[in-house]
Amino acid sequence: MRLIITLLIILLLTACSILTWLASFIGSITALEELSQNLVSRVGEKAITYIDSQLDPVVKLSSSFAADITNGSISLQPSISNLYQKATIYKASSVGVFYSQSLYSVVWAGVYPNEVLTYSEAIPGLVYWKLDASNGNVVSVFKNTSTIPFSITSQAFWAGSFALFNSTGAETILGAPYVVINSGVVIYCSTKIYDPVLMVQGTKKVIGIAKVNLTLKTVQDFLQKLSVIGNGYIILSETNNNVIGASINSTATDGVSRISLFDLTDKNAGQLMTDLKNQYGDMSKVPSYSQITSKGVEYFVSKMDYQYLNVRWNLYMVIYKSDIQRVTNINTGISVAVAVVVIGVGIICGVFIGHIVTKPLRFLEDQFSKIKTFDLNSCNFISSQFKEVDRIYEHLYDMVTWLNEFKSFLPESVFNQLKHMELVEDSKQHSATIRQSVHDSQAMMSSAQLSSKHSGKSSNLQSGLGGITSGGLFKVGLSTNKVTIVCVKLFGFSNENSMHDLSLLFSKIASCLSNLSKTMQVTDMKINSVDEFQLCFTNDKKKKSEFLALDASLKIAKALNNITGKSGQKIDYSIGVCSDLANIGNLGTSSLRYFSIVGSVVDNAKIIALLGHSSASRVLVDGNTLTNVKEQFVYKPVDRLEMELHSKKTICSIFEVIRENVVNQDEWLYELDQSNSNNKYLELQSIFHQLFESSSSISFETLNDFRSKLSQFMNEHPQESSNMTKTLEFLEMVLQCSSESQSHEMLNNYKTVLEKHLTTLSKYTYSDSDVIVTKIKID
Predict the structure, then answer these.
(1) Which residues of 176-198 are buried (b: 16+ CB within 10 A; e: fewer)?
(2) CA-to-CA distance for 49 and 133, rounded, in angstroms?
(3) CA angle 679, 684, 686 (to 5 degrees)
(4) Do 308 and 350 lie in a common domain?
(5) Which one of 81, 439, 476, 752 has the fewest CB atoms closer than 10 angstroms to its CB?
(6) Mind listing the pLDDT tens digit for each residue in 70-125?
(7) Residues 558 and 596 reside in one and the same domain
């Protein structure tokens, strides 16, 4: 659950981060596009404002100068100082008046930075005087071409001005840029000058123009100071595509010539404009905002139209798409970094919150796992800062308290089944794995092999499963399994002890058996009466039920040997162990259930226990049970007993289990003594086997030899001779037979049976007692 909570928090934070980044990305893209357009618009507006600021003084100077001459405020031939002051104040590259036959002008001659302030007149050729730039005084003659006639009316600016006057009908016009002699490229503003004498009379007659020049370098210097996003640039051009100025290099190689928009080389501008023209057919059709790729580079191009008086210019602003994407990438990187940090913090918070939220659940899981197996003493209780969780803890405490109250009234089989719950579940999983493996292997067989081997594999599979695998825990129903029953019978226990001693001894015995059942793999433990106890064992994953039963029997015997009453008298007991197939499981209804073992194995264990009492033996087991674990225990033969095994009457050899066949590592002398003690019963086992379990006849000579060995064993070990007395007496009887075949028949049919005698004492009373008698049956 903690993992789910952590994953949900991480998923939520990741989704929020992705959505936030997506919103930020889309928003930033949109905002950047709008911002770039706004920035471009602002740059364009700034450029237009500056161009206006440059042209407006020129226009006003030209208009005011012409008005002063027309009004007679200034003579038709302005003084040099007047022209100098106007040129200096308005920072014009040229200020002058031009008539059809004369001109008077102050001009910055030459190309920057080698410009010279001059004053020129046409008389009739041009004469240039060099002026002092600081005060306007004549310094010297700069250039004298007076001998060469100079026709003013044939000049381009004169013809162009009057052409624009006629086409626009305006008093003041801005002319097209042109190259001034001995100077650079300029744009000019011309205003009509009327005859002042006729003007007073109300007649307008144009006699000349007041012309002011503005060098393009001023505009270009300003445009070069403008910056667009990243490496973007601005180009100002005429409608005929001649460049007026740009933020990139737009100067011709000779420094004075005009350059076309398509001939720009800096930043691939000329090729870009060519591609733009090719895309839209004509530069006049270029939209206000467009996107184009030139030589593999993507651009955004914004076009603005500039208009002042009669002038129509185009302002192009070029932006590299990569510059905008760079900002977007930076924004994306920041968003991703923030998202990673948020997710990292979310993971930490998720782990922390998951730990806080699931801590009570993990605690409850641990407590309920203990309650599930009724391990109530291991339950512990804590408090919580959360009110709801604390109330759950309180209810849990109340529940455990009540369970402890009636725990002692539950049968031990319930606790044993609970204890083996995990073992049963593992067994089921193992069963499913084996079944799947068998199914896969059988699928590869032929149909004949499948039909012949299926039943054998199924039976082997069923017998190989340990524990109660059918029906599930506490479910009603029986299943056939191999079980080993341990029957513990106490003799004279209820008759020879007082009520107080009986209670005391029984509590000790019950406590001992209960503790053993908890530490060992006991499937079920029942208390049939105060003097009879029954334990059931089934195979587990590691050990066989026979070994578990015999090991438990030895431990029970050791415990019973140490239990004494107030009188110090030891308990007389005998333990019978038998294994066989039986039907085991829960019987009853949903309101009343009883764990039962249905089969002859239960009665067989009781009979073996009774035989143990009659033969003064403690732990007895039949040969069928001992077969699979004989190497692990030290045992000796006791008798032959008729029992029902595998649903038929069978004569079985009965053995007394003395201890485990273990030689403790110690000094070699002690190890040798232990080994000899364990091996002293081997010859006795061999004699017993040849006498009663051999299929061939035994000669009288061999029988006499066996009798001698038995007598010798009884003499050497008188404390263990009680079990051999009856066998030796029977052997004496066999030796009196007339033939070996008759003796063989007697040996094969020798057995001890349990008989029940009914003795009538009166009309309404009778007694029922179990005794062991020896019968010799010859068929």
Answers:
(1) ebeebebbbbbbbbbbbbbbbee
(2) 29
(3) 95
(4) no
(5) 439
(6) 999 999 999 999 999 998 988 888 899 999 889 999 988 777 677 888 999 887 78
(7) yes
- Domain annotation covers residue 377: yes
Provide the CATH number for the domain around residue 139.
3.30.450.20
pLDDT digits (tens, 9 = 90+) for 536-552: 888 877 788 899 999 99
Q: Which residue is it, tokens 């077969």?
A: 627
Q: Which of 360, 390, 413 is the last residue of a domain?
A: 413
Which residues does 375 contact at the CB level (< 8 Å), separation at least 6?
Answer: none
Q: Which two tokens mark 47?
A: 């450029």
From CA 585, how far away is CA 474, in angstroms rounded? Answer: 8
Residue 276, token pair as written in the block:
């733009």
Tokens of 294: 């030139």
If asked whether residues 537 and 564 sit together in one domain, one would say yes
Q: Is residue 529 included in any domain, yes or no?
A: yes
**Residue span of the structural domain in which 444 resides:** 422-662
DSSP-based three-state secondary structure for 353: helix
- Alpha-carbon distance 194 to 183, whole Å? 29
Q: By percentage, how much of the chain surpasses pLDDT 90?
A: 19
* Whether residue 295 sits in one domain with residue 317: yes
448 and 383 both lie in a single domain: no
d(CA 471, CA 586): 9
696-733 confidence digits (pLDDT tens): 777 777 878 877 887 877 777 776 666 677 777 777 77
Indicate if 400 and 288 belong to the same structural domain: no
Count of C-beta atoms within a 10 Å radius of residue 554? 18
Cα R_g (the chain), whole angstroms: 62
Query: Does 113 sit behind a cis peptide bond, omega within 30 degrees of 0 on the bond before it?
Result: yes
With respect to residue 489, please indicate whether it lies within any of the assigned structural domains: yes
Question: Is 90 exceeded by the pLDDT of residue 29?
Answer: no
pLDDT higher than threshold 70 for residue 776:
no
Specify whether 143 is located in the same domain as 157.
yes
User: Is the domain of 396 the same as that of 316?
Assistant: no
Which residues, 6 or more positions from 642, have their beta carbon under 8 angstroms from its beta carbon?
A: 649, 650, 651, 652, 751, 752, 753
CA atoms within 13 A on the CB side of 466: 21
Q: What share of the chain is helix, strand, coil (3-state, %, to 5)?
A: 50, 25, 25
Residue 637, preceding peptide bond in cis (omega within 30° of 0): no
Whole-number percent of the chain with pLDDT over 70: 82
Q: Is 585 left (phi over 0), alpha (psi -120 to 50) or beta?
A: left
At residue 504, the 3 state secondary structure works out as: helix
Structural domains of the chain, count: 3
Query: Which residues, including other chains, have CB under 8 Å from residue 733's CB and lie 6 or more apart?
Result: 746, 776
204-215 confidence digits (pLDDT tens): 999 999 999 988
CA terminus-to-terminus distance, the chain: 74
Amino acid at 131: L
Q: Are residues 300 and 321 in contact, defined by beta-carbon separation less than 8 angstroms?
A: yes
Residues 6+ apart with CB under 8 A from 762: none
Sign of torsion over alpha carbons 582, 583, 588, 589:
positive
Residue with token string 């349990």: 754
Count of CA atoms in the C-beta half-sphere (13 A) of 118 = 20
Measured at the CA of 208, the angle between CA 206 and CA 210, to 5 degrees, comes to 120
Count H helices and E strands in the chain, helices first: 21, 24
pLDDT band at 456 (very low <50, low <70, confident <90, very high): very low
Structure confidence at residue 67 (pLDDT): 93
Please classify residue 612 by burial: count the beta carbons closer than 10 Å to its beta carbon, then call 0-12 exposed, 13-18 middle and 19+ buried.
buried
Provide the pLDDT confidence category of residue 127 given band limits of 50, 70 and 90: confident
- In 3D space, the residue among 502, 580, 498 whose CA is nearest the CA of residue 545 turns out to be 580
**Would you say residue 692 lies in a domain?**
no
The residue among 413, 430, 449 that closes a domain is 413
- Kindly report the CATH number assigned to the domain that includes residue 647: 3.30.70.1230
